[in-house]
Write a structure and sequence with these properties.
Rossmann fold; 43% helix; SDR family oxidoreductase; Sc_DH/Rdtase_CS
């Protein structure tokens, strides 16, 4: 019996990278998915590429807007009739030493990577209470390992890990499970990088997708609340 068949997931930043990899894995497991992007055209192109017809809903949303996220969540529920899983994946990175970082870069990083997750989670809570659903936040190993030029990114991801663990404690009383996944190097377009043959050593987006499916299939009595994941072998410099 496929326990995921017909369930509904909402994925921020689902048009590429990790979000796209998760969307494909969930679709392959029989779920319906809504994917968001800041551009509706980008979301629609990704939905077409995923090739699952009416099982994919493309939406435009800026995660730094609570109003946008609430509208997108409401549209997902109106389209599919329920909400079972929220994947807070959308994120950006600005990297510079603190003396060179601008206020705009700082605010965009925090507003997207931390406040954006608050907005996504806040918008989905009532529906997830009804379905006894699952929230998965995509953090980073940068949420526990600090590095030079990482003031904004480290702050956002350290904050996201703390946020995720705190809401896990808040929401499990309602039957809602919360996990944060903390990947290391992933072969994506993050930071303007174009994945190529030199990235085969890295975690692939579909690997994170497989991990999400495994989490959703786990017995309800068990909750892996925080998962660090890294390439099994380091890349060659």
């Amino acid at each position: 019996m496929n326990t995921l068949q017909g369930k509904v997931a909402y994925i921020t930043g689902g048009s590429k990278g990790i979000g796209y990899g998760i969307a494909k894995a969930l679709l392959d497991s029989g779920m319906n998915v809504a994917i968001t992007s800041r551009s509706i055209e980008t979301a629609q192109q990704a939905a077409k590429s995923l090739g699952s017809g009416t099982k994919v809903l493309a939406l435009r949303s800026e995660v730094n807007s609570l109003e946008d996220e609430q509208k997108a969540i409401d549209a997902t529920i109106a389209h599919f009739g329920q909400l079972d899983v929220v994947i807070a994946n959308a994120g950006i990175g600005h990297f510079a030493p603190i003396q060179d970082m601008t206020e705009a870069q700082w605010k965009e990083t925090i507003d997207t990577n931390l406040t954006g997750v608050f907005n996504t989670v806040k918008s989905g809570i009532e529906a997830l209470k009804a379905s006894k659903g699952y929230i998965i936040t995509i953090a980073s190993l940068a949420g526990t390992n600090f590095f030079a030029n990482g003031a904004a990114y480290n702050a956002s991801k350290f904050g996201l890990v703390g946020f995720s663990q705190a809401i896990m404690m808040d929401l499990r009383q309602f039957g809602i499970k919360v996990t944060t996944i903390m990947p290391g190097s992933v072969a994506t377009n993050f930071g303007g990088h174009t994945p190529g043959n030199e990235d085969t050593w890295k975690i692939q987006p579909e690997d994170i997708g497989e991990m999400v499916v495994d989490l959703l299939k786990m017995h309800p009595r068990t909750l892996p609340s925080k998962i660090e994941v890294r390439p099994s072998m380091p890349g060659k410099s």
